């Protein structure tokens, strides 16, 4: 037979999620940390937990005939430590967290990733443990963030992985050039060059400037920023691929209004949540993401409108928003104030954002399209954008913007 140390060492290499299994006897709550939780059957819905026969919890669950399973999130290692009896001096394991009770009366952790309320239907002997099989009476997936993991006797979470592919859309260069009085011909040639190099280009900015220029020909990949239903229909009729609609989540009713604007057009609409990283709007932003995801818009834009978000703010918002938006992808527009744009873009990539809005040469304060394409190349993240072509377009643009020698300047 394998020696106990080797057995434990090998089992320590097996990573698992972490749950708190709860029960109640005579109205008294009890709970313990357990990683032996497993799904058993879908029909009927059954799960199992293996509990050490010597544990206090074991006797309670056997007597009560009910248990709750609370799946812990990555920020709940302390809860797991408390319920594993690892924190000295704790008299009430339930103190400090918010709990509700389900049908069977078992305590359920409000902040858990999800919970199941179970009735014991089988108890199988398993050496010094008992395998409790529970029929699942009710369940709720409460949060959509990453789970807490246990591996090699330590707590962990999933590493942030970079995506295989990321896409770029230029949301600023056309408006910036028009604003600077560039000829329509010159503006369109920049737009066409960018689109040909694999970047979607916003060719119309109707939300800010209703005087729509006459667009003779549209590049292959194009979008229009619109504010009204009429503008959306007009732009789509013109042949743009996507309409982008801004929404200020801090304004009551604004999200509902946008949903009316894009009613029936959701699969071609990118809704841009303004000031998405402002801490004071945190809940409003996440609520907007949930509503837009339910409406199955094409994508949800997360805009660092003032350019002032810090990488930590970007991280904090995106790590919840990415999960809440699923299956709708997020598109981040990050400002380059304090030259932190690429740091924020990397943070967004690692938080699960695969689509970006940028601006060639960073003309409007957003991360420069050519800089992000280069970063993606360095990180081995594929993109439909051709780095060489985008770089050339940016160089040409910068040259065209160099002011001619002011009158009277020396040399
Ligand atoms: C990550 C982790 C997972 C655990 N999983 C189990 C398990 O699946 N079964 C078990 O019997 N004990 C497990 N334990 C140990 C119990 O949580 C621990 O013994 C607890 O104090 C039992 O509570 P009680 O003494 O109040 O019954 C685990 C501990 C940790 C830290």
What would you note in describing this structure?
With 411 residues, the protein is an alpha/beta fold. The chain has two domains: 7-156, Pnp Oxidase, Chain A (Roll); 167-401, TIM Barrel (Alpha-Beta Barrel). 31% of the residues lie in helices and 26% in strands. The protein has an eight-stranded parallel beta barrel, surrounded by eight helices. It has a seven-stranded antiparallel beta sheet with strand order 3-2-6-9-10-5-4. Helix 10 (341-350) links the parallel strand 19 and strand 20 (355-358). Helix 4 packs antiparallel against helix 5. The longest helix is centred in the C-terminal third of the chain and has 15 residues, at 311-325. Bound molecules: flavin mononucleotide. Residues 18, 32-36, 50-52, 55-57, 80, 84-85, 150 line the site of flavin mononucleotide (FMN). Flavin mononucleotide (FMN) is lined by residues 18, 32-36, 50-52, 55-57, 80, 84-85, 150.
Q: Give the strand line-up of the largest sheet.
A: 13-14-15-16-17-18-19-20
Going by CATH, the homologous superfamily of the largest domain would be: Aldolase class I
- Level of helix content? 25-40%
The chain-level mean pLDDT equals: 93
Query: Runs with pLDDT <50, length 5+?
Result: none
Q: What overall geometry do the principal axes of the alpha carbons give? A: elongated
CATH C-level class of the largest domain is Alpha Beta
Overall strand count: 20
| Bound ligands, named by name, code or SMILES | flavin mononucleotide
Question: What is the beta-strand fraction?
Answer: 25-35%
The CATH topology label of the largest domain is: TIM Barrel
Q: Kindly name the structural category.
A: alpha/beta
């Amino acid at each position: 037979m394998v020696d106990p140390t080797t057995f434990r060492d090998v089992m320590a290499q097996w990573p698992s999620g972490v749950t708190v299994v709860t029960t109640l006897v005579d109205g008294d709550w009890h709970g313990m940390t357990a990683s032996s939780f497993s799904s058993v059957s879908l029909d009927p819905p059954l799960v199992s937990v293996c509990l050490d026969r010597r544990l206090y919890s074991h006797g309670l669950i056997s007597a009560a005939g009910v248990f709750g399973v609370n799946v812990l999130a990555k920020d709940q290692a302390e809860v797991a430590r408390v319920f594993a009896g690892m924190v000295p001096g704790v008299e009430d394991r339930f103190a400090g967290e918010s709990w509700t009770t389900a049908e069977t009366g078992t305590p359920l952790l409000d902040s858990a990733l999800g919970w199941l309320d179970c009735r014991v239907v089988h108890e199988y002997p398993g050496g010094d443990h008992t395998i409790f099989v529970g029929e699942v009476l009710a369940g709720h997936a409460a949060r959509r963030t990453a789970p807490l993991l246990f591996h090699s006797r330590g707590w962990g979470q999933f590493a942030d992985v970079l995506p295989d592919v990321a896409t770029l859309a230029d949301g600023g260069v056309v408006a910036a050039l028009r604003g600077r009085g560039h000829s329509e011909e010159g503006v369109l040639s920049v737009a066409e060059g960018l689109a040909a190099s694999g970047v979607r280009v916003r060719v119309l900015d109707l939300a800010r400037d209703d005087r729509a220029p006459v667009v003779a020909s549209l590049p292959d990949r194009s979008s229009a920023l619109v504010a009204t239903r009429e503008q959306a229909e007009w732009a789509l009729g013109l042949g743009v691929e996507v309409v982008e609609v801004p929404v200020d989540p801090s304004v009551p009713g604004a999200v509902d209004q946008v949903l009316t604007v894009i009613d029936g057009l959701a699969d071609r609409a990118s809704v841009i949540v303004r000031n998405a990283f402002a801490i004071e709007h945190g809940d409003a932003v996440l609520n907007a993401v949930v509503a837009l995801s339910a409406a199955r818009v094409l994508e949800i834009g997360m805009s660092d409108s003032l350019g002032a978000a810090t990488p930590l703010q970007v991280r904090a918002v995106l790590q919840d928003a990415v999960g809440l938006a699923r299956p709708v992808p997020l598109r981040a527009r990050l400002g380059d104030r304090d030259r932190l744009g690429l740091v924020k873009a990397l943070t967004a990539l690692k938080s699960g954002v695969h689509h970006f809005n940028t601006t060639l040469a960073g003309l409007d304060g957003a991360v420069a399209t050519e800089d992000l394409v280069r970063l993606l190349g360095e990180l081995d993240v594929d993109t439909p954008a051709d780095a060489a072509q985008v770089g050339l377009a940016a160089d040409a643009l910068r040259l065209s913007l160099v002011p001619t020698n002011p009158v009277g300047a020396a040399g």
